[in-house]
Design brief:
241 residues; alpha/beta; Rossmann fold; globular
């Protein structure tokens, strides 16, 4: 855990991120971030908890919409940057695997790229025991060989403990929360990642994203090779009682 703290303190000390990253590899899956945002808005939360809030781009965005937001991050540098935003945010430095919060205080929990940092399914066990009706996460998957090659060639870009999600983990979530839905992003569009800085590439990216939507929705066997999954973890009102 100290490795995670030190890595992210160094990362966030001087660095900021855009809400929808352009001119980076993530530009080819910016539709995943759109879908993540839209699913959160669609859930109509009143009290939102963001796990691993980073510099606060998402939680400040939702705060502007009038949602009461609490944010937590293991990095004090990230929490410091988050706290400097103009919105009124309740920002906590803490470990998600031993949350210093009562989950029952929130009707929605969100997280971007956090589950693959955790050591176990403890978070989902906690969510199952809580009254949280909706949890939405955006995460990388582990099965695409191109992504795995990139990760192998860039080991210093992440901590050693990071492990993208497997389909077995998604099956576990589905078994624990039967009403959950998953949507997948980033398949053929991955071939465009070396060229994202080329001007006027947006239309081509959109065309590949449309093709990915079709392939990944119509041919389920391809879903494991997607780069990104958005997990909408749902509980019925009866399950929350």
């Amino acid at each position: 855990m100290n490795e995670e703290v030190n890595f992210h303190n160094k990362l966030f000390k001087d660095k900021q991120y855009s809400l929808k990253p352009r001119n980076s590899a993530y530009a080819v899956v910016d539709n995943a971030f759109d879908y993540y945002r839209d699913q959160i808005i669609k859930s109509k939360p009143q009290f939102l908890l963001e796990l691993a809030c980073s510099t606060g781009l998402w939680c400040s965005y939702f705060s502007k919409l009038g949602i009461k937001v609490c944010a937590i991050d293991i990095s004090f540098e990230a929490a410091r940057l988050c706290s400097q935003r103009k919105q009124e945010l309740n920002v906590i430095v803490g470990d998600i695997q031993s949350l210093p919060l009562d989950l029952n205080s929130f009707d929605c929990v969100i997280g971007s790229g956090i589950i693959h940092h955790l050591e176990s399914n403890m978070l989902f066990d906690s969510l199952a025991k809580s009254n949280v009706q909706c949890s939405i996460f955006i995460e990388p998957l582990k099965h695409n060989p191109l992504i795995n090659l990139y990760r192998f060639l860039t080991p210093n870009s992440r901590t050693k403990g990071e492990t993208p999600l497997s389909m077995n983990q998604l099956n576990f979530v589905q078994s624990k929360f039967p009403s959950s839905t998953f949507r997948y992003f980033g398949f053929t569009s991955l071939i465009l990642t070396p060229f994202v800085k080329i001007p006027l590439l947006n239309k081509l990216i959109k065309a590949f994203q449309i093709m990915d939507d079709f392939l990944l929705s119509k041919i389920p066997i391809l879903q494991k090779y997607a780069w990104i999954v958005v997990m909408n973890v749902q509980k019925t009102p009866q399950e929350c009682s």
